[in-house]
Each structure stands twice: as structure tokens, then as C-alpha cells.
Design a protein that fits this description.
Elements lengths: L1 H17 L3 E4 L5 E5 L3 H9 L2 H11 L5 E5 L3 E7 L9 E8 L17 H16 L1 H10 L4 H13 L6 H8 L3 H12 L3 H19 L4 H7 L5 H12 L3 H14 L1
Antiparallel strand pairs: 1-2, 1-5, 3-4, 4-5
Length: 255
């Protein structure tokens, strides 16, 4: 099923980004997919009745997520796969350690204040995965060379991370100067220009749909400070991020 393929892609990417085990189950507890799980983690999941607790609490209380506590500062965090339809099932992040002393090779330390950000990352990955191929379709239909297509793919998958032309050239196993010239020749833009435009496009969706501070959005899409983000946003959009958000809210209210 396409929905299950979307879920599989989402949690695989989440695990690659965070190294925190994650599994998805349907509303009846039937596994859809998991990433990073070991036999011992499966046993802990079953022993602590994580699915049953998650379903009970998420069904009874209108909340974004619930955290299930196991012994020795070990936790799981669960949220709905689809915010508008609980019957789609649940993503369950963990196990993870809430105290440094509980962390070990297979158990990542994540304090409680990190959890909302991890859930936001999961939501962002899910949104990207849902239209990932469609989003890049325009690029791939262009007469770009294989290296430029792969560079764009790499940028779209990792735009939220620190990234340079040199990093991308290393990933493609070609020289920095060759990629620089090829990218500019085929796209008409420098690597930095293209990356900035991609990050701004990603941030526009968050500005319109999320009630997050502009700084958090800037950091989430890969900018390392708000001033530079504001500068690039205004240069490309002819308005500030806050003005863009205000206009988006006004359009939504008018619908």
C-alpha cells in the first residue's frame, strides 16, 4: 500500500537522522514498520505494554503526544500517524534514555525538552516524504545531468543540516570545481543560491501552518541565525517572514 510505503520511508529517515528506534503500528497494534529495533527492545516494548498505554491515553485525551515510562529512566513517546484520524495508528519513538547515566550503545539520551522538537522533525519528514517524488519531479524533468539531479536530491533530503558545495561534491565523489561549474551551467544558479531558495520554500510551509517562533523555523530549515534567514527571505519574497505569515493567516481566515 502507498500509505504504508510512505510510513516506512518516514520512519527510516527519522531513524537515520536521530538514531532513536521508532516503530509504527496500526490502530489494532499490528506492526506497519520499525527502524532501529533489536530483540531486547521488542521484549521491552511488549513487557511494558507500550502500545496499549499509548492507545489508551491518545484515545482518551486530546493531546499531541504521550510519553510512556519504563524502569531505569527509559521512555517511549507516541503520537498519531495522522493528526486528523486516530484510526490510522501511531508512531512510537523509543526506547530512549531520559538521563545520561541510562544511555548506552543502543539507547540514545534525549531529555524531555527535546521531545517536541523530535516530533516536529518527524512531522516535517512525513510531510516531505508524502510529496517527495512529486516535489522533485519538476527538477528531474529538466535536462539535468545525473550529477546535478543527485545533488538536488541530496540537498532536498538534507537541507535542514549544515551543507556545503564541498560536502555535496564529496558525496557524489567528484571535484568541487567540477560540480560548481556544472551546477551553475545547468540550473543557472550557484549552489548556495539554489540551497537558500530550497530552504526558504521549506520555511514558507512552516510559517503558514505552524505557530513556531521565526528563529525556530530558521534553524529547522538549516539557517544558523535569524538575521541571515530574514535577509534571504526578504530578498526572495519581497517581504519579511512575519509579513508572509500574517498574509497567510489572513488568506486562511478569508476562506
Amino acid at each position: 500500500m502507498l500509505v504504508h510505503e510512505h510510513i516506512r520511508e518516514t520512519i527510516e529517515k527519522f531513524y537515520v537522522c536521530t538514531h532513536i528506534p521508532i516503530r509504527s503500528v496500526d490502530f489494532n497494534g499490528i506492526p506497519i514498520h520499525s527502524a532501529g529495533y533489536s530483540g531486547a527492545m521488542d521484549e521491552l516494548f511488549e513487557r511494558q505494554h507500550v502500545f496499549e498505554q499509548a492507545k489508551k491515553e491518545l484515545t482518551a485525551v486530546h493531546t499531541r503526544f504521550v510519553t510512556i515510562t519504563a524502569p531505569e529512566h527509559i521512555h517511549f513517546t507516541a503520537c498519531q500517524i495522522c493528526g486528523k484520524n486516530i484510526n490510522r495508528g501511531f508512531h512510537i519513538i523509543g526506547p530512549y534514555a531520559s538521563q545520561p547515566k541510562a544511555a548506552r550503545d543502543s539507547l540514545v539520551y534525549k531529555p524531555a525538552y527535546c521531545i517536541p522538537y523530535l516530533l516536529e522533525l518527524l512531522r516535517t519528514i512525513a510531510a516531505d516524504s508524502a510529496y517527495f517524488k512529486q516535489k522533485l519531479k519538476t527538477y528531474y524533468e529538466q535536462p539535468y545531468s545525473l550529477y546535478v539531479k543527485k545533488a538536488i536530491d541530496y540537498m532536498d533530503a538534507r537541507y535542514h543540516e549544515p551543507m556545503t558545495l564541498e560536502d555535496t561534491a564529496h558525496y557524489l565523489k567528484i571535484s568541487k570545481s567540477y560540480l560548481c561549474n556544472l551546477f551553475k551551467k545547468e540550473t543557472g544558479k550557484t549552489f548556495s543560491q539554489f540551497l537558500n531558495e530550497l530552504r526558504i520554500e521549506k520555511s514558507k510551509k512552516m510559517l503558514a501552518e505552524e505557530d513556531l517562533p521565526v528563529l525556530d523555523i530558521a534553524l529547522a530549515v538549516g539557517f544558523n541565525n535569524q538575521n541571515y534567514y530574514n535577509l534571504i527571505f526578504k530578498k526572495l519574497m519581497r517581504r519579511t517572514p512575519l509579513e508572509f505569515r500574517k498574509n497567510s493567516l489572513q488568506r486562511n481566515d478569508a476562506v
